[in-house]
């Protein structure tokens, strides 16, 4: 079953639907996907999770009001059971991809999941008692607000503490898992393998929040650990495992990863002998919001004796600086629920490798790592699922829409040799006009030498960075299309060589794109990434200018028709560039840009980011909620607003009014300052959008206006 989403502009929502297929292997080199004739819309479904055997399907429906949460159990032919869990038990089930965790136990009778803890009681205020015969709702009283509670910031505004629950799918009984400290936010729960006796363990990720909860979206620098908690069971008369009431004192929580500052995405090996997990310890230890990951293994005590827990084994350590084009380190934002090949020790992962995403295989016993997607391909690949020892993936490029691929061993004795088949799929279909426009475009990945290499730079920071260049493949004369420089946010993120509807639109209407992965981006090793904190506004700005000069010198761009667009930190760079290089750009577009660190530090959900990116890793330890005059002075000096007197580039601002990461006041202050000095400025504020500006109508209006703005100044 493929889960697909599609923007619905009229409803301003994304439609979610399921499309089923039957896979038939005709021979070793041929496979057929028999697709259902039509998809099925999953209206109101927050999560859809098949059981391990595939015989049952859980559908969770979170309400938009105070109604109960619905749990539906489906068989192949019908709805078998439906349970309504009132919000006095718990709130909405987390289905966000981070705290989210829904896990069936091995005999498919219990499901563990993460949901919002129930709402705390609020004070009632009354102007006097009501008279007899009044309705249940007392018109002379109202509910107060009660104490304000911290949340996890951007995209989590108003969501309550993620907590752990178990539902019995036979009886519908729901229990909160006991023994977990209130200071822990819980996520990514999985059932541990069955052990001796009637005790079963749940393994989950816990984020401690004894003081302030700092924003967690896109921020892997929040310390976390793997924990195990025991769930007591008993056998019913029908010999089925049932939940047993226990006191929290009976069920101590065990920290499995005390010796490491970060552990998440736990996965048990098929034989249950070891537990594998990802770690963002480089991010936590340095303070960078994202950095190079590592992969680790611990041997699982099948007898439940955690005192004999072995030390943590490094499977993939952090790569500081890769030689040549070798493996640059692990950059993985998720792991399949079942990532294992049939040998029981080889797992498959998607990981960023330079400006592309690839699929790798890792033997967690030996540490052997292989890139299994074609090395000669500049496309990006995303791992969807496994079909036995075969792979279902999606491949795309900036000028090629996503294509379903089927991968299989060419030589089973040599697991590094894979072959990939194109799968005819309705998912890949697009209108003929889109195909025609894309067919006239081409792309390449450029290596850009670093300018002004100094001796105090690490080896990794001296290596060339990359840029993706998208241009016309039908050049009729010596003229060049206008150039749009595209800058990603973060700064510790990356622009991948994958399909982007918005960028494909800008390219198809007659622009070349220079998509720059400046030093500090993911996918190039830890030394290159850590070279940026403390140097934002200078090193990253210089890298972008170097990349622009590179394509101009190659005759690929006209220096009089250069524009720039970026969001978040990309907006920070956009507004820096039009100040530091005021004659370079004919127009600019900034989406939720960070323009003034001194303003941001007191209003954002990630004030620690301001310290780390301004001071470097030492800023992690100097972070305070009450910045000094010296801090504010440094923040201002690092900010685009310090160069505003030089700006003359016409600039359009796209701002989300609900943005907690870079609040709307940041962009508005800068835009007003430009207007004050007579620079042509256009501002569009999307009242219901957060940092990403991803609601369908907002995304549409945003990029349509960017295209029109650039067209106006690139005549």
How does the SSE layout of this entry go?
Elements: E1 2-8, E2 13-19, E3 21-27, E4 30-35, E5 40-41, E6 47-50, E7 57-61, E8 69-74, E9 79-85, E10 102-104, E11 110-116, E12 124-126, E13 141-143, E14 162-168, E15 174-176, E16 184-191, E17 199-208, E18 224-235, E19 241-243, E20 254-255, E21 264-268, E22 274-279, H1 281-286, E23 294-299, E24 313-316, E25 346-353, E26 356-363, E27 369-371, E28 380-387, E29 390-397, E30 400-411, E31 414-422, H2 432-439, E32 441-448, H3 459-462, E33 465-472, E34 483-487, H4 501-508, E35 512-517, H5 526-530, H6 539-553, E36 562-567, H7 569-580, E37 587-591, H8 597-600, H9 607-615, H10 619-622, H11 629-637, E38 651-656, H12 664-676, E39 681-686, H13 696-713
Parallel strand pairs: 34-35, 34-36, 36-37, 37-38, 38-39
Antiparallel strand pairs: 1-2, 2-5, 3-4, 6-7, 7-8, 8-9, 10-11, 11-14, 12-13, 14-15, 16-17, 17-18, 18-19, 18-20, 21-22, 22-23, 23-24, 25-26, 26-27, 28-29, 29-30, 30-31, 32-33, 33-35
Task: Record keyword descriptors for this entry.
715 residues; alpha+beta; Rossmann fold; eight-stranded mixed beta sheet; 39 strands; acylaminoacyl-peptidase; EC 3.4.19.1
């Amino acid at each position: 079953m493929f889960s697909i989403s599609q923007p619905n502009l009229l409803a301003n929502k994304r439609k979610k639907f399921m499309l089923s297929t039957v896979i038939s292997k005709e021979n070793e080199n041929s496979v057929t996907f028999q697709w259902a004739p039509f998809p099925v819309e999953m209206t109101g479904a927050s999560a859809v999770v098949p059981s391990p055997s595939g015989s049952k399907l859980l559908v969770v429906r979170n309400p938009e009001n105070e109604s109960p949460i619905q749990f539906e159990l489906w068989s192949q032919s019908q709805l078998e059971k439906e349970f309504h869990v009132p919000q006095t038990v718990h709130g909405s089930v987390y289905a966000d991809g981070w705290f989210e965790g829904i896990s069936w136990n091995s005999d498919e009778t219990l499901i563990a999941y993460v949901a919002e803890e129930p709402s705390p009681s609020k004070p009632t205020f009354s102007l006097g008692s009501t008279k007899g015969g009044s309705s249940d709702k007392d018109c002379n009283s109202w509910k107060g607000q009660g104490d304000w509670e911290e949340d996890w910031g951007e995209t989590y505004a108003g969501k309550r503490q993620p907590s752990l629950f178990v539902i019995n799918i036979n009886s519908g009984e729901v229990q909160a898992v006991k023994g977990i400290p209130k200071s822990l936010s819980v996520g990514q729960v999985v059932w541990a393998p069955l052990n001796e006796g009637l005790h079963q363990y749940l393994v989950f990720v816990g984020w401690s929040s004894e003081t302030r909860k700092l924003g967690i979206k896109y921020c892997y620098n929040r310390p976390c650990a793997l924990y195990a908690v025991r769930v007591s069971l008993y056998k019913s008369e029908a010999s089925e495992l049932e939940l047993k009431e226990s006191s929290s004192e009976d069920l101590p929580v065990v920290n499995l990863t005390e010796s490491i500052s970060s552990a998440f995405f736990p996965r048990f090996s098929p034989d249950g002998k070891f537990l594998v997990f990802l770690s963002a310890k480089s991010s936590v230890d340095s303070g960078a919001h994202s950095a190079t990951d590592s992969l680790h293994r611990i041997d699982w005590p099948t007898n439940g004796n955690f005192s004999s827990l072995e030390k943590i084994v490094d499977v993939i350590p952090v790569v500081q600086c890769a030689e040549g084009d070798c493996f640059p380190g692990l950059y993985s934002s998720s792991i399949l629920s079942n990532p294992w090949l049939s040998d029981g020790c080889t797992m498959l992962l998607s990981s960023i490798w330079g400006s592309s995403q690839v699929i790798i295989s890792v033997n967690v016993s030996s540490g052997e790592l292989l890139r299994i997607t074609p090395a000669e391909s500049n496309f990006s690949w995303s791992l969807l699922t496994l079909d036995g020892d075969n792979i279902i993936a999606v491949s795309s490029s900036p000028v090629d829409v996503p294509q379903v691929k089927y991968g299989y061993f060419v030589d089973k004795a040599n697991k590094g040799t894979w072959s990939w088949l194109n799968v005819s799929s309705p998912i890949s279909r697009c209108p003929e006009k889109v195909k025609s426009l894309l067919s006239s475009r081409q792309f390449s990945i450029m290596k850009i030498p670093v300018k002004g290499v100094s001796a105090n730079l690490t080896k990794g920071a001296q290596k060339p960075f990359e840029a993706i260049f998208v241009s016309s493949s039908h050049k009729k004369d010596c003229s060049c299309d206008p150039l749009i420089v595209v800058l990603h946010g973060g700064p510790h993120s990356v622009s991948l060589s994958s399909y982007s509807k918005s960028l494909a639109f800008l390219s198809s209407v007659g622009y070349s794109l220079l998509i720059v992965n400046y030093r500090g981006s993911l996918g190039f090793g830890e030394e290159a990434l850590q070279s940026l904190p403390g140097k934002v506004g200078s090193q990253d700005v210089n890298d972008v200018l170097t990349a622009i000069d590179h394509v101009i010198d190659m005759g690929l761009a006209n220096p009089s028709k250069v524009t720039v667009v970026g969001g978040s930190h990309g907006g920070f760079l956009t507004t820096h560039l039009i100040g530091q290089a005021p004659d370079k750009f004919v127009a600019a577009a900034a989406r939720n840009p960070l323009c003034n660190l001194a303003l941001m530090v007191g209003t954002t959900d990630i004030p620690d980011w301001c310290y780390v990116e301004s001071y470097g890793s030492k800023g992690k330890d100097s972070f305070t909620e009450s910045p000094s005059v010296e801090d504010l002075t440094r923040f201002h000096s690092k900010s685009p607003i310090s160069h505003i007197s030089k700006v003359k580039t016409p600039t359009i601002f796209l701002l989300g009014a609900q943005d907690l990461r870079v609040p709307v006041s940041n962009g508005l202050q800068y835009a007003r300052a430009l207007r004050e000095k007579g620079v042509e400025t256009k501002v569009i504020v999307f009242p219901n959008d957060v940092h990403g500006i991803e609601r369908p109508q907002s995304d549409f209006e945003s990029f349509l206006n960017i295209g029109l703005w650039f067209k106006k100044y690139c005549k």
